[in-house]
């Protein structure tokens, strides 16, 4: 566990509000700090993660970067092999299907501590450690499986799979991963992922984890609420937010959110707006 965290309920609520303000501000920064955003997500999932705990993760990433050789000969492939040797083979960072069943696999501080996680969180570790060491590195948001690229995404580059301990991927390997998600590999899929795209995908994974476990509705709720703080998000997310509020017994807030969603979609889909307003009225009736 991390530090002691806030004391009473009021202090905890204020700490959460402050963290969310910080998350929203960082998401709108000119160059968003991916690690900080991931740690602020983690703090929602683990209220014991305080500022000292976040600093400890940053220090751990710096220390890992310090163990990599500087400017290795051999270009992108050498960088990929060196990072894989350190993180995958020596330190055991990687994943298994069982990691998909754990919320900790989406919380950066736990991934750094346990050295286990989902492909996207392991890729954050890979890219941040390599970047600190001076590597030309970036995340690659393949459909269904996040990986890491080294080199020039428009020229000479190699791909590595942190979930598999840093295994280097051929074009055929990448195509096979994408095919597993029911898609065909295209050139745009291999371009660097934007930090906010990565954050949105992490939050989507957390929502999917919670949706499969109704007893964890509050987890899905905070994941949606963070996603709504990103500069852009699908309008449908408001409807999902409303439903989660209702599921958690917060009927008044859920009805208000349904009405707001109806207002947003009315110009393009009046029939849906009317249906949603009817649902909002039903939810308000639950208060009687």
From TrEMBL:
Domain of life: Bacteria
Basic and acidic residues composition bias: residue spans: 14-23
Pfam families, A to Z: TPR_9, Transglut_core2
Annotated region described as Disordered, given as residue ranges: 1-23
Domain Protein SirB1 N-terminal, chain residue ranges per copy: 57-203
Family to which the UniProt record says this protein belongs: Belongs to the UPF0162 family.
Protein name: Tetratricopeptide repeat protein
Source organism: Streptomyces benahoarensis
